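I have been asked to look over a protein record a colleague put together. Alongside the sequence sits a line of tokens, each denoting a local backbone shape. Please read both lines and tell me whether the tokens look consistent with the sequence. I do not need a full report, just your reasoning and any doubts. I have pasted the whole thing underneath without changing anything.
>
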Amino acid sequence: MEKDPVHAGKQRISDCIRVPLPLLEVTGGLMLLATLIWYGLDARNLPKPFNATDIGAGGFRC
């Protein structure tokens, strides 16, 4: 057991799929942008409040 190499049973990093960091950053940014747009479009489709003078989060202005 002590004679086994240190890397026995582990996958080497060179065997993994490699993606350039700029490509990964752009892909992640586009995914976040798409999520933001989807969220914004869903928020615009919410119904208007029945009572515009009710106290909500926007009613507490300093």
